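Ticket #4471: complex job returned nothing on first submit. Input attached below:
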Amino acid sequence: MDRPFGNPGSRFLLWVDSVGGYWVCLGDEVILGQPHPSARVDVPLLGDLSARHARIRRDGEGYILEALRETRMNGHRVEQPTLLSDGATIALGDTVRLLFRRPLALSATARLDFLSRHRTHPSSDAVLLMADTCVLGPRPSSHVVCRDWPCEVVLFRQEVGLFCQVTRVIRTTAGVITHPEGVMFEIDGHRQCQRGQICPNSRVAGEGFSFGLEAI
Amino acid sequence: MKPSVVPVDEADSVDVDFRPTDAGASRDLPAPAKFVYPSGSQPLVGYTIKRGVGHGGFGEVYYAVSDAGKEVALKLIRRNLDVELRGMRHCLNLKHPNLLAIYDIRRDEHGDTWVIMEYVSGHRLEEVIAANPQGMPQDQALAWFFGIAAGVACLHDHGIVHRDLKPGNIFCDEGVVKLGDYGLAKFISCSRRSGQTESVGTVHYMAPEIANGRYGKEIDIYALGVILYEMLTGHVPFEGESVGEVLMKHLTAQPDLSALNEPFRGVVARALDKDPAKRFKSVTEMLAELPRPARFEVYAGPLPAADAGQEMVSTGKSGKATSRHSVATVDEEPIFMAVRALFRRACDTWRQSSFNLPTKIALLVVGTGVLLMTSGTWLSVLIFLVMLYASYWVVRAILTALLPRSGAEALPSPAPPSAGETRPTAQVVAAEPMSSTMGWSAMASPLPNAKPRLTPSRFTDGEAEVLLLGPPRERLAQWLGSLVGGALATLAMGLVMLVLIGFREGAAEPELWSLTWWSRYAWLVAVSLSCTWAVLTASKFWEGRSGDAMLRRFLLMVIGLGLGLVAFGATAYFGVELTHERFMQILNVRPHRALSPSDGWASSKYYLAAFATLFFVVRWWRLADPARNVRMSLWTIIVCVVLAALAADLWGFPQPWLPMVACAVSVAVQLASPWIHPRDRRWRKT
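Support reply: We reran it on our side without changes. The output follows.
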């Protein structure tokens, strides 16, 4: 098997059925800007932007926003590299507005939601800046909240491969708790128990949940 | 999730449609919703599926992208239902901003039918309701409701009954409410009766007469009532543990409306009437009972723009501004409407002209002066015309009162079905001819516009909703500022008018800057200033409140009596003689006489009567209303001056003193009182 997620600039689209489409960037550094054939833009946004408009860098546990063109954070102009905190709004140019989220304190993965009507190209519902793990599940603190799923899916990187681990969850009045019981599911039609390796065009499906990856 | 029939929260309506009939009572997890087509598959040539979106009443819905990159929703219809597709095709070319567009219907190689539709990425109403378990904010609910209602009205207009209105079918995409699933309602109702699938999510919105197989427009009205109730309270009116229980409640139980305020209570009660004949006859009629949402443009923005009706000329600008200040004649009279439209257009041209503000004021002042000087000639013509119109109006009013009122009330209801009439179960009900009544054309999208026109009195003087104002401290500062501004404006206006009046031919005016002239100026300014301040102060108390216009007139009349005394006192104090000039005289009711300080107390009656009349006939507080149409209205000034001239003639008060005071006051009040631009106004229900 090739090692497609080893490239530092790897990206893929995560299509979660009944939930949404997510633009996942694996690199530690992403450039945000307008899609341009000659420039490499990690997060291409269809907005009134430059091809290289801003850079977000993962530095240890934190994220640093660097303005290459006019950028504001929480309404203040970004003059020098600034640390992003959970809930910060990022305004690129006059109209593009993003919300920076770090929903899970234990994971360095961050999420960019669109506050303005702008979307990536091809279209997605949010951008995930994935560090080592990414959580999909019914808990509100998940990176991708899948309200009706009966289980929680953790995507994680090990060396250069991407793996998927599925855990059953139980809903109680107090909230959602995980259950140690292993869950059977399928990756590209092959039965897996609890965990398995996925590749850039895999489809993962189990009881009550399904999602697919698409290489960009 | 909203509290639904099944307490297990997996009972999302997305899954629910796949359950067997008795699933409502079971507490098992629903069979997991499977999406047959994975990301990347191409069931239809030219479209690549990206992900599943949800499950409709009869198959999966996918998000797909065409080869060129167009985002669409693909709805799979597994069963081969040729007959039902006919109804679908009827909707294929409907165009309305509040309806989800259907692009095409295609068949794949397996014989399955796919509906290619507009993809919306926004929220479903279901999610918004779930996020507000205590009910949505009233304005937000109304904004949604007006959008939904406009879409339903469009369907009804084309003879289509939706039959499956529910929050799961309603979306908001970039601020526009979108109604989905309309063409497919027939499938659902078919399967429902055959008992193959029963959708728990839908029975909450099912009208009782559906049990008898009746599918008229009334069932949509019923569902609208349920949705309105649910948006405002956070839960549906009839809840139960099973489908049967909910259905039984729809048939027999009375909804508990105690959580709703008027007018919502009345509207929901009538929409949820068990007898379809007693419900609203049309969506328009239902909307007429509801206040317009303040943020209406957010959710149904394209609505007014989609208007192709005949009323746009006269309501060319924002509906609210027009409706609030249009003169309240419930029966709109054509000549009056035409004149008003003409005047509006003139005003618009004036506002959009390239002059800057000082130039505009200068033009206004010069124009007023010219009008005053030439008043002798045009006033008589105007009076003649007004009298002619008045007699015509009286005759018309008598005629309309005698004739049956087929106008205003019947307007929104296009030939309602008779009480016992059974609607055919076919999808397409007979559509009334489009052109026959104005009601139909008004039903499509301009209906929110049409409503205030029918009941303008609700909106005048802020009875239904009033302007949201700043804190008291800010209003005090505004008031003090307006007093200063008013003083400056009266000083200037007095000077301008006295100078202009000196230009009349053969005028026996005192020399400019002479002592007599100064005393006249002092009188004019003192009287105008006290009147301006009185109006500004009274209006400040009344702004942002609803109140009876007659009561306010009466209070102003009392104030007018006081101001008459002030004027009388000023005459004595400044030793000015108020001479009478014929040039402003309109009526000849009573001989005019000059008033001088030597007349003594006996002459005070002229002042009292003239000022009290002036303050009774003009609704002065509207000149200071922050929500007036324009900051400075020339028309208002003219009306004030003419009314003042008439009031002076009525009591034989020397001319042109009272019109001059009225002119100064109307200009000063409008200039000095705060004005909020229509786009910045926020409204509050009373």
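Chain A has a mean pLDDT of 88. Closing as resolved unless it happens again.
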